[in-house]
Write a structure and sequence with these properties.
1 helix
Length: 92
């Protein structure tokens, strides 16, 4: 069916309405996350340096990380998923 018809033939009218309804639903589906994003950028609180309390070495450096991540090579004394331990003081 060519574009820019002012009136579709009767056999294609139902498909045109379904296509228009689907496009409207998709448009709302894109609009809602965009509104959430704009709201969060404007009114959301800033996350800290380790918002999840992760214990990996990548969370102990600053963001963006310096060229040499650590001044001296850290000695890891915990498991990678040792979440029950406190975050501070893991690097010996």
């Amino acid at each position: 069916m060519p574009r820019r018809y002012h009136a579709y033939p009767p056999e294609f009218q139902v498909l045109n309405v379904l296509s228009s309804a689907g496009a409207s639903i998709l448009g709302v589906g894109y609009l809602i996350p965009m509104l959430y994003l704009m709201w969060s950028l404007r009114y959301g609180k800033l996350a800290g340096s380790n918002p999840w309390g992760a214990v990996g070495l990548e969370w102990t450096t600053t963001s963006p990380p310096p060229t040499e991540n650590f001044a001296e090579t850290p000695i890891v004394t915990w498991d990678a998923y040792d979440y029950h331990a406190p975050v501070e003081g893991h690097v010996a």
